[in-house]
């Protein structure tokens, strides 16, 4: 055999194959380190030019950097180097054997191996090969050749299809390489906390966490996120931000901590291990400034890396919807919208994707929930743009009926009575609104028959009413609330933001700023929260307040002056002629 590229992996594997009885006829080694490795691990093996190695060997090990592999294989093919019957093995994790096609066309036998192991490039690695899992990818008839090579050096072959290689490799890099970054950061911070031997100190804890995770997956999670200790998490962030300001070498620490806390929160929440309000508080605690959470969700760009998703199926009639749904197997989630979609809506769809096999999005501007004189006709509509956005997040079906489809006989005579919860806050200003909302929500639940229905926390009272309806009328669906998505400056995303001119857009910031001021006063009690928020709103002449209240998140009833625990600070206001709403969860005792 011969080895092209005596890097860490190449030299170690060649040495192991040699020990198993193969004769190594030559190794190509360009750098000093590679030549030293050949001396140390392959003593007596001549260092040759690549064409000479390829010419002399029956089994060629290509262990060059991933990005150089395709060019190398093609280059050897261009000079007629490959020989029929030669076994060509590479060890690039992300590739299967397609990358070896030029060699295969010349009659060579392609094999892709990848050891799930890190290498130092010294003889220490030889012992690590024993029992080490190796991914083996090769055309069916030659798969046994790859498996036999692995067995010869003491490894455990695991057959992996060509198409799975990129995902496989990404998983290993994410788990093993990013773990190194994470643990390095933890050791540095522990050192700054005065712990002398951070590695020794962390060892037992990290080993227990790793063992637990390998055994039980996410159930192994412990710590402040799982306990919903948002105050502790906020303090961690503040402390790490202060440390990063002193130590430029740790400037990457706060974003890493924030991102991992956010992802940990979202995963625990998706798994039902955190309540909506605990998750929202945690997301707020790790949000970038403004402290009202602006980036708690993957950005739109996060979806860009994925394969372009197929467009959702668009259906406009009951009959077509039934036909499409009848073909679906497995679980279904529904996201109901009025269109003019933005990232807040897409968050609902992303969460729906995580929770069900199929995702149906409804787009319907429901006349029944608009009172005469409201913005029914002006409400923005752009179905084409909506479909493109929904394709990017993997919605399967879009149901976009017209009013005649939903209400063929005009306004329905039988409607859902939303009860007393619908006459306060939004309901005080829009008395017929929630009757219209719940009627259409119930109709859409019947039409789409979902297991899960997702609604935004931005419309907190609507969410509470949908939950109440589902409970009181025994509708067989799980209702999930999704945190508020904000613009980077704090403004809650809303289709109605499109109405705002420049001056109004800037005045509208007073809403989220007031909520933030209220949150900052949470430690001082309910009255102070309201006073702080009200002061902020009063200072903005472009805003006409409708209501500002501190309420129980479930009943929407105002909390008493001495209340404690999670509360909802809700606001509605006209900015010019646009009516906006916003809210935030705060913890009356915990926030400072
Ligand atoms: N910023 C947001 N973050 C999270 N969810 C949101 C956000 N905005 C809207 N949603 C949710 O999306 C769903 C559809 O809402 P809708 O189509 O009314 O959008 P909207 O932007 O709230 O429009 P408008 O503010 O004009 O009523 C609702 O469940 C709503 O709560
Ligand atoms: C739930 C809903 C789609 C019903 O029309 C609407 O009220 C909304 O968009 O929040
Ligand atoms: N997002 C609630 C729908 C409405 O205001 O009509």
Structure description:
This protein has 592 residues and is α/β, with parallel strands linked by helices. The chain folds into 4 domains: 2-160, 3-Layer(aba) Sandwich (Rossmann fold); 169-286, N-(1-d-carboxylethyl)-l-norvaline Dehydrogenase, domain 2 (Orthogonal Bundle), CATH 1.10.1040; 300-482, Rossmann fold (3-Layer(aba) Sandwich); 500-587, Pantoate-beta-alanine ligase, C-terminal domain (Pantoate--beta-alanine Ligase, Chain: A,domain 2). Helices cover 44% and strands 15% of the residues. The chain contains 23 helices and 16 strands. The strands form 3 sheets. It has a 7-stranded mixed β-sheet with strand order 2-1-3-4-5-6-7, with helices on both faces. A 6-stranded parallel β-sheet has the order 8-11-10-9-12-13, with helices on both faces. Helix 7 (143-152) links the parallel strand 6 (133-137) and strand 7. The termini are far apart. The model is unreliable at 290-306 (pLDDT under 50). Bound molecules: adenosine-5'-triphosphate, pantoate and beta-alanine (BAL). It is an enzyme of class 6 (ligase). Residues 2-115 form the Putative oxidoreductase/dehydrogenase Rossmann-like domain. Pfam families: DUF2520, Pantoate_ligase, Rossmann-like. One of its GO terms (molecular function) is ATP binding.
């Amino acid at each position: 055999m011969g080895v092209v590229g005596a890097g860490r992996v190449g030299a170690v594997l060649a040495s192991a194959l040699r020990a198993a009885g193969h004769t190594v006829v030559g190794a190509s080694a360009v750098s000093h380190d590679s030549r030293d490795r050949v001396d140390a691990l392959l003593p007596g093996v001549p260092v040759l030019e690549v064409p000479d190695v390829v010419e002399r060997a029956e089994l060629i090990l290509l262990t060059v950097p991933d990005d150089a592999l395709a060019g190398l294989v093609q280059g050897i093919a261009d000079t007629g180097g490959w020989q029929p019957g030669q076994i060509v093995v590479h060890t690039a994790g992300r590739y299967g054997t397609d990358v070896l096609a030029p060699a295969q066309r010349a009659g060579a036998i392609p094999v892709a191996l990848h050891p799930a192991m890190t290498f130092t490039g010294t003889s220490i690695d030889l012992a690590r090969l024993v029992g080490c899992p190796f991914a083996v990818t090769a055309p069916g008839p030659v798969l046994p050749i790859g498996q036999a090579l692995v067995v010869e050096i003491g490894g455990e072959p695991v057959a992996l299809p060509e198409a799975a290689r990129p995902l496989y490799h990404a998983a290993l890099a994410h788990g093993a390489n990013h773990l190194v970054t994470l643990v390095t950061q933890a050791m540095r911070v522990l050192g700054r906390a005065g712990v002398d031997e951070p590695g020794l100190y962390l060892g037992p804890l990290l080993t227990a966490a790793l063992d637990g995770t390998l055994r039980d997956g996410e159930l192994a999670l412990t710590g402040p996120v799982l306990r919903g200790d948002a105050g502790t998490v906020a303090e961690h962030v503040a402390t790490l931000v202060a440390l990063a300001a002193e130590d430029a070498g740790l400037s990457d620490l706060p974003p890493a901590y924030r991102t991992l806390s956010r992802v940990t929160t979202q995963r625990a929440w998706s798994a039902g291990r955190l309540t909506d309000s605990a998750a929202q508080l945690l997301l707020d605690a790790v949000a970038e400034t403004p402290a009202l959470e602006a980036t708690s969700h993957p950005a739109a760009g996060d979806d860009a890396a994925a394969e372009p998703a197929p467009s959702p199926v668009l259906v406009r009639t009951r009959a077509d919807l039934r036909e499409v749904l009848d073909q679906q197997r497995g679980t279904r989630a529904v996201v109901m919208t009025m269109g003019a979609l933005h990232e807040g809506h897409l968050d609902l769809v992303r969460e729906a994707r995580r929770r069900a096999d199929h995702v149906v999005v409804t787009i319907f501007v429901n006349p029944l929930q608009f009172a005469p004189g409201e913005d029914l006709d002006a409400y923005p509509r752009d179905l084409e743009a909506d479909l493109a956005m929904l394709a990017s997040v993997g919605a399967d079906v879009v149901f976009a009926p017209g009013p005649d489809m939903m209400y063929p006989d005009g306004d329905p005579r039988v409607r859902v009575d939303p009860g007393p919860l619908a006459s306060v806050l939004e309901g005080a200003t829009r008395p017929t609104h929630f009757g219209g909302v719940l009627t259409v929500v119930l109709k859409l639940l019947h039409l789409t028959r979902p297991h899960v229905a997702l609604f935004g926390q931005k419309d907190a009272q609507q969410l509470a009413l949908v939950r109440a309806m589902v409970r009181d009328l025994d509708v067989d669906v799980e209702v999930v609330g999704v945190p508020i998505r904000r613009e980077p400056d704090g403004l809650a995303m809303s289709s109605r933001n499109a109405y705002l001119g420049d001056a109004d857009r800037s005045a509208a910031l007073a809403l989220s700023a007031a909520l933030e001021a209220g949150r900052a006063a949470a430690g001082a009690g309910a009255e102070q929260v309201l006073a702080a928020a009200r002061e902020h709103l009063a200072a903005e002449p472009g805003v006409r307040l409708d209501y500002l209240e501190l309420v129980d998140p479930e009943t929407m009833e105002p909390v008493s002056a001495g209340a404690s625990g999670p509360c909802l600070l809700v606001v509605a206001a006209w900015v010019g002629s646009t009516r906006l709403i916003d809210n935030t969860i705060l913890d009356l005792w915990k926030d400072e």
